[in-house]
Amino acid sequence: MSIAKDSGSPYDRGMWLLERLIFRRLRRRVFPGLRGDVLELGVGTGVNLPLFEAGARVIGCDASEGGLGWAARRKTQAPVTLVRADAQRLPFADGSFDVVTASLVFCSIADPARGLAEARRVLRRPEHRGELVEPPVEGTRPEHRGELVEPPVEGTRPEPRGELVEPPVEGTRPEPVEGRAGGRLVLLEHTRGSGLGAWLTDAVGLLWNAWSSECRLNRETTQAVAEAGFRLERVERHALGIVRVIKASV
């Protein structure tokens, strides 16, 4: 599974050292295991495309026509369709994908919150085949699954023939019962680091931002994912927390 050899783009040549030091290893861990209908945001020159295996059906989108031209040259195992589109305004229907993924993208999206909201919109929601029990309205009694024994004895409460339905615990949601799991968000990003890494990204970021009009070194992408309504499942920190693999679900 070649990552860099299929493309001689200036971007790939400029990333060669960082790929050798850290990103190549992480890409090979993250992307081959993704299955189903997969949307890759900011596919760029297609560096991840050779890693998707036959169990994935991949749509790669990018706003750059030049990047998509390089991506189209990649040799792939999975079927791949390339679409010119902005990650902040995706041209796909709600619930179209099992996985939305991206690498080194949310550092440069103009409005990360909007991009994450779009990612969440196009991911499939979990199916719940069990009954969702609504909490009782304040001041009323909970409903009973069963017939009340009539007439009740004076001074006592009627006894239900059935199970008392308890309201769900506040802050929880029902578990899927024999249903489809919800869609997943899988990101490989550079972010504001942890500890010394935070100091480095903040300090270098001042100079970096003056040079780069798009890329931001110290974005809090993990926090942004949670604030967009995703449920964080796993966050791996590498290189002083500056590089992270973020896995979340809807």
Reconstruct the topology from this structure.
Elements: H1 10-14, H2 16-30, E1 36-41, E2 56-62, H3 65-71, E3 80-84, E4 99-103, H4 112-122, E5 144-145, E6 163-164, E7 184-190, H5 196-211, H6 221-227, E8 231-238, E9 243-249
Parallel strand pairs: 1-2, 1-4, 2-3, 4-7
Antiparallel strand pairs: 5-6, 7-9, 8-9
Explain briefly what this protein structure is.
This protein is 24% helix and 20% strand. The protein has 250 residues and is α/β, with parallel strands linked by helices.
Report on the architecture of this protein.
- This protein is an alpha/beta fold and 250 residues long.
- It has a single domain, classed as Rossmann fold, CATH 3.40.50.
- 24% of the residues lie in helices and 20% in strands.
- About 15% of the residues have low confidence.
**What distance lies between the first and last C-alpha atoms, to the nearest angstrom?**
30 Å
Extended strand count: 9
Looking at how many chains there are and whether they match, the oligomeric state comes to: single chain
> What would you give as the CATH superfamily?
Vaccinia Virus protein VP39
Q: Can you identify the CATH class?
A: Alpha Beta
CATH topology grouping:
Rossmann fold
The H-and-E topology, N to C, reads as HHEEHEEHEEEHHEE
Strand count, sense and barrel status of the largest sheet are: 7 strands, mixed
Percentage beta strand: 15-25%
Weakly predicted, low-confidence segments: 140-153, 155-178
Structural class: alpha/beta
Total number of domains: 1
